[in-house]
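User: structure tokens for this one?
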Amino acid sequence: MKNISLLGVISLLVFSPLSLAQQAMKPGVVVTQVTEQDVTKVFSHVGRVVAIDKVDIRARVSGYLLKRHFIEGAEVKKGDLLFEIEADTYEITVRQRQADLASAKANLKKSKAALKRQQDLKKRGVASAADLDQAAASEAVDEASVLKALALLAEAELSLSYTKIYSPIDGKISQAVYSTGNLVGADSGALATVTNMNPVYVSMSVSEKILLEARRQGIGQKTSPVAPTLKLSDGSDYGQAGEFDYLDTQVSESTDTILARAVFPNDQGILLPGEFVQVDVTPKEKKLSAVVPQSAVQKDQQGYFVLVVNNDNIVEVRRVELGAQKAGNWEVRAGLALGEKIIIEGLQKVRAGAAVNPVEG
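Assistant:
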């Protein structure tokens, strides 16, 4: 019985097509399947955040700063009262101009009556033409005096209105440069600055070579096929996409770049004017393609190839047409099908036509 058993074992080892010895002779390789991945090309640039509206608040008349009506750094609305300049001098001027207007109107009324009398006397033949002309000229002078008084009154009222300074836009107001009690005027510079930070511009200088393809795709049009997104200084993604709204009309001769500008919503005030951000320009239509790890790709005189393990665990050489690299993978434009197994480790141990023991990586 012992002899029979030993012969049986020897027979199995010698004649079995998949003996343990044969299995041990097959080299082990690590394989992975061809998968599909988003290979949409992204162009990245450094951009700077710019406020769409930024207004320096300035005094248009001279006087002592009487009151400040805002909290520094707070949001203000268009039409909100920001500063008051002492108005006494300008109110007095308005009253003087009102008096001058009243006087001019009285003189005009008097000259109109004198003209009418001369016209009546002329009809009765008891007034000379010279007297009539003199009365007409006096009336014209007094009419001009009224117009001048009206203009001076309007000017005085305008100067008085400038003693109250209102916000011209919605936005966030800066720190006040002058405190109350200071004498300010047209030459005092900005009293404060109001900045509208929603939405904001992001401007960038893009090389002509990179922008050429984007222009072919329609960048800058109302229905542009590309959209800009942002990465903040901490590396996080800004959650809202923007739209290109401006491309410069010429290439800078000194830098060989074009100024491009995009608009981004800024509801939460995360973006601040002056800061740098990374702008990623991505086609709105995603491109999906077969990909393989870079470690699976080899090259010889005929070009790029990978080693494929077929259903019988036999190695095949497969010529491939590659695209761009992204995230450690090659885009495969032709030569492979999704789901095929390719060798990523153990390439040096095998050749075409060899049998292998594949292990999923």
